[in-house]
Amino acid sequence: MGYLRTIFNTHYNGLPLDQQDVLEIASGHYKDHSDDPVLSRFGLPDTRPEGYDDRAINFQYILKTGQIPQVSYSDGLPYFEDDNLPYLPVYERQEWGSQYIDWSSDDAFTQALESIKSSVFRRVESSGELYGLLTSDHWNKDDRIEWEREVAYIVSEEVDKITGLDRYRVAAPELKYDQAERRATRLNDISADIENDTTDYEVDCETFSIVKGLILQQVDNYYLPPKASEGDYKAVTNYFYVSGVVSVNRQSSFGGHAYILSPVTLGVIEATIDPSEEGLEGPYFENVNPPDYSFEDFIRGEPAMYEDGSVYGAGHLTKGDLAQIRVAQGQLDTDKIYTSINPLMDWVDKTGNILEAGDIPMEIHQLRALKADIIALESQNGGQSMKASSSLLKPDNNPYEQYNQFVDLIVETGHIYNILDFIEKHSLVSSSSPSVQSATSDKPTNSIPSFDFLKNTP
Length: 458
What we know:
It contains 13 helices and 13 strands. By secondary structure, it is an alpha+beta fold.
């Protein structure tokens, strides 16, 4: 598993991961399907990752230096000293991605951080629940989770009270969010928005995570002992700022995102959640990976799963990874996918003339081609199915087996989401058995089984 890399240390320094300054999240987890004969036969593209340069930065490091560096490969390839002592011989700072705080500057931004910290400290000290935890001699993991959850909520509320830090906005016209004019490389520049109640500077998942993570870290540093005995969770945790990806609310894709991670509990603090909005979960989400899942697993590239169905990780994760996670969580029912594929093919055959040109996903065209091979074989057998005796056919001349292999593969690689998105687009998910209206008649052209399994929850 030699793809851990610690940045700023030419060689691995032996410190535990949660004491490192900056970590680059690994991408060795990725499984390459590009040579699969079924994919290559039909020209189905491999769902390769997009190659984000993902990092986890210790908030103690940000407090000390003010630096939030972007990281990158020196030539696009990983470097290993050996399987256990990884290193990166060349560090490249990408100015477009890096940000920093000038701690020596006495401005509206640094003053706001100090004001937020004071308000949070007062609320921590007046909280009966947190007082009970602080006066306890020993914490178990549940106690630590409760501490993180309660403090995260207080921090989120106090940040939301600061003019200029109370509204999400991005400097990206292509995104459908409130817009800002520019991204602040020097976060102190947001002082102008704080002073003038404007939204010129971007305050997005990066900024919110940095601001709230810094306060969370200072709360731990002030109220908790630096160390504890083995099995005791009452000690300072080094929170990490993570720049990676997320799939929220059981969505079928990942999007680039920054967030706060506790390496002890693997809990995520979702810094973009507006505490003033009613009905929203969070901002703290409890990890639901198996008990042996660790911070090292996360840094090695294994995705982290949460109680609301969200999946957090690094940019190398693909739709194939997501499909496997959703199957494991019970959010994708593979049995129902299999039983629904044939009715879906029949529906497409009967309604293809009313679909928009190019609207049918390539995966469905390929399933139809495989089905045509089955029909052709059965026509040679007097229209009788040969499925029961298909094991006698040669592998390269067995359309039943090829069809099943293809369905397996599109689930494994995440291509199934192209089909599921197609189903959803054409309103084949409903509270009752769905039907599709003909372009020339108000009567449904064909009724097919419900695809409500798309709405499955754990």
